Amino acid sequence: MQSRANISKPVPAVERIILGVDPGSTIMGYCLLRSRGKEAFVLASGVLRLSQYGEHYQRLTAIFHRLNQVVTEYRPDELAIESPFFGKNVQSMLKLGRAQGVAITVALTRGMPVQEYSPRRIKQVITGNGNASKEQVAKMLPSLTTMLNLPETLDETDALATALCHHIELQRPLGPSVSPARKAKQAQTWKQFLEQNPERLKP
Fold first, then answer.
1. What tens digit of pLDDT does each residue of 79-127 get?
2. 9 neighbors 152 (Cβ within 8 angstroms)
3. 19, 76 contact by CB (below 8 A)
């Protein structure tokens, strides 16, 4: 009897549209990224300038309406949003948190999964340096995705970087990769820890 080898068919890449948002109480950046396998293509990006609205609650209403328009037009599958950083100005942090909350609410009411990324994590994923500047992040984006037109503002590039960070993380089913240098550092650290705490070793 002639045996027939099993030939596995390649699994088609999952295609999804990621809405990236850089929340702000004066300017909000957003970007739509089509993710398919390892490929990423920018569909659209823009900013919502909120300084024209005097009342803070008017600004939150504007964010809600604009993001609803974006979601209706492009039908994104997921939201990737930058989490607020900790600052000394409590009022600014409160307003930023509210703006982020409105964006998340829009996603949740549409049944979209939400993933938050810290500014440092986004910079680390995009540039390899968690302390990179906004300009350094923006310079890396063309090499990581396909763009017909470069975003005009840093708020847009921040939103794109957030979406792209999520796209890259989706390619890592076992979690974020660790550089060889960090692995070596961790190994040295644990070795020192165990040498100093031998009772922690189980027989």
1. 999 987 766 678 888 889 999 999 999 999 999 999 999 999 999 999 9
2. no
3. yes
CB 129 within 8 A of CB 136: yes
The model's pTM: 0.77
Say if 199 falls within a structural domain: no
Determine contact, residues 143/123, Cβ cutoff 8 Å. Answer: no
Distance separating alpha carbons of residues 106 and 68, to the nearest angstrom? 6
Residue 160 maps to which CATH number? 3.30.420.10
Which residues, including other chains, have CB under 8 Å from residue 99's CB and lie 6 or more apart? 23, 24, 25, 28, 59, 60, 63
Distance (Å) of CA 30 to CA 64, 130, 144, 156: 13, 21, 18, 6
Please give the helix or strand (H or E) that residue 109 lies within, else none: helix 90-109
Which residues are catalytically annotated? 22, 82, 155
| Residue 143: how many other CB atoms lie within 10 Å | 7
Structural domain of 56: 15-176
Q: What is the pLDDT of residues 11-48, one digit of tens each?
A: 456 799 999 999 988 999 999 999 998 899 999 999 99
Domains: count for the chain: 1
Q: Is residue 196 one of the residues assigned to a domain?
A: no
